[in-house]
Amino acid sequence: MLPFSRVAEVFFEIEKRSGRLEMTDVLAGLFKETSTQEIDKLVYLVQGILAPPYTGIDLGVGERFAIEAIASTTGYPKNEVEKNYKKSGDLGNTVEELIGKRKQRALLTQEMDMVYVYSSLLEVAKTSGTGSQEHKIKKLTEMLNNSTPLEAKYIVRFVVGTLRLGVGDPTILDALSVAHKGDKSLREELERAYNICADLGYVARQFYEDPKLIAKFKVQPFRPLMPALAEREKDPEAIIERLGTCEVEMKYDGFRIQGHKKGDKVELYSRKLEKTTHMFPEIVSAIKKLKVKEIIFEGEALAYNEQKKRYYSFQETMHRKRKHDIGAASEEFPLKLFVFDILYLDGKDLTEQPYQERRKLVEKIFKSDVLKPSESKLVKDADGLEKIFQTALNEGLEGIMAKDLKAPYTAGKRKFAWIKLKKSYGKAVDTIDAVIVGYYLGHGARVEFDFGGLLVAVQNEDNGKLETIAKVGYGFSELEMVELEKMLSKVKTHAPPKNLDHKLEPEFWVEPKYVIEVAFDDITTSSIHTCGMKGEKGYALRFPRLVNIRTDKSVKEITTTNEVIEMVELQRTKTG
Ligand code: AMP
């Protein structure tokens, strides 16, 4: 049995280190001491979750409740706990200090093992209904009564959602391989398995049961795959040069849906892999009518008005859904799902099949009024591609997606299997997706939310760091400002995100959680932004402006530093 004190010790070790190699070794050491029955639970704890996002299991314990539990464990009155928290800025540090000098101690304490802590947290998460808050506090108090100061620190951070060890999934994958094999040689297999089921605990458990299961790992209904991502090129010529003859599909600016069906059961997952089945009843019933036993496929849903021949964008579609009740909205603005890929059919994993074969199946299977294949055309040269691109823009679409005929489905990866070409915004060449890491107040001119701009960052894949790239101060509607204020004030933090490289200090730091799409004129070098920084020079966006708040995108999917560097290259070849 793995004692929880050992886990806390390792978390403490990891917190002191910032290098990925060191973290990997420390974590691999812990994994070696972990049994098959325990490994899935431990992996979730390291990830700061209890189960993958699509299960909908969320702790749901606010700071207020954690403070009550801390008060009742330590014997300090609530206002003292709050006072200490105001000073420390971290409820984990507060509980660590107060338990260290607690005024009372439970009579019977027992050493906790990791599985007990995990199961207790799961119980807290699953308790609902009347009296559930009391029960949650009681359970949490029970755990804290049995905790050392260090254990209490991590339990409380976990519970209020601020664990943030700075260990990313790639480090966990490396550590699993190192624990078993002594090196990272199994990393690639593990990563593929993770990409096609999005459940790292499950992958780890299978791996511990029998490492050979990982090489044979297959897609399964109701285990959503990590979505494949698209690369960009500057123009039709560049796309043809890279892909040769390719299939060019319309790019719909809708809501990405991964549909799963087995027998009569249907589930839908969003791009972030949250379950969204309840949001799209009309799509669910269309899927139930498909003449297949089991299927997993992907498409883009958006409202379409037949009479006006008009597509509604993601924002408009969602807005309509919120305004009308879902049923009414379904009738007035019928949703279509434009299917663009198929990943599994009647027991067969199709992810390794070439796109061309998968596309044939898409065209054969999806023929109803609601579910149809994305419109597409086989294109041999740049002229042909340009023509379709213009057609897409004329129809009010966002652009096109060119697809490599021979490529497999690249789950969880940004590859040149898919290349996007989008309409430009004003003078803008393109847009990036960046995560908000902080914000500034304005100077009175802007109503309601006294708002001065957002500090945003991209992700450096090579070292796992977030790097700032712009201060975005334009492009906000009043509504968006109010919405942002509501979202950001809830995730303010005292310190910058642990994995952020920065030179600027915004007025408020926030948890890196919300993604926005930003347009810009071009990319310049900068001494104050850290994106791709070499020596004193990094990259920054010129005239950055907000296009959209992308609640459908997760931090994992933001633009990477390497992509920014590629964009700089594209910019150079374009302007000479
Ligand atoms: P972006 O969000 O600009 O990186 O573009 C990628 C997104 O375009 C995907 O995540 C899909 O949601 C969406 N999309 C729209 N139409 C297609 C299509 N025909 N093929 C693939 N993705 C598409």
Helix and strand layout, with pairings?
Blueprint: H1 4-16, H2 20-32, H3 36-47, H4 63-74, H5 78-88, H6 91-100, H7 114-126, H8 132-145, H9 149-160, H10 169-181, H11 187-195, H12 200-209, H13 212-215, E1 229-232, H14 236-243, E2 246-251, E3 255-262, E4 265-269, H15 281-288, E5 294-305, E6 310-311, H16 314-323, H17 326-332, E7 335-345, E8 348-349, H18 355-365, E9 371-373, E10 376-379, H19 382-394, E11 399-403, E12 414-422, E13 431-441, E14 451-460, E15 465-472, H20 478-489, E16 492-493, E17 500-501, E18 508-510, E19 515-519, E20 522-526, E21 531-534, E22 537-542, E23 545-549, H21 561-575
Parallel strand pairs: 1-12, 7-9, 15-17
Antiparallel strand pairs: 2-10, 2-11, 3-4, 3-5, 5-6, 5-7, 7-8, 11-12, 13-14, 13-18, 13-19, 14-15, 16-18, 19-23, 20-22, 21-22
Helix pairs in contact: 1-2, 2-10, 3-12, 4-5, 4-6, 4-8, 5-6, 6-9, 7-8, 14-19
This protein binds adenosine monophosphate (AMP).
Overview of the molecule:
- The chain is of the alpha+beta class.
- It has three domains: 156 residues, DNA ligase, ATP-dependent, N-terminal domain (DNA ligase i, domain 1, Orthogonal Bundle), CATH 1.10.3260; 194 residues, D-amino Acid Aminotransferase, Chain A, domain 1 (2-Layer Sandwich); 144 residues, OB fold (Dihydrolipoamide Acetyltransferase, E2P) (Beta Barrel).
- Helices cover 40% and strands 23% of the residues.
- The strands form four sheets. Strands 13, 14, 15, 16, 17, 18, 19 and 23 form an eight-stranded mixed sheet that branches.
- Helix 4 packs across helix 5, helix 4 runs parallel beside helix 6 and helix 7 packs antiparallel against helix 8.
- The longest helix is centred in the last third of the chain and has 15 residues.
- The protein binds adenosine monophosphate.
- Adenosine monophosphate binds next to strand 2 and strand 12.
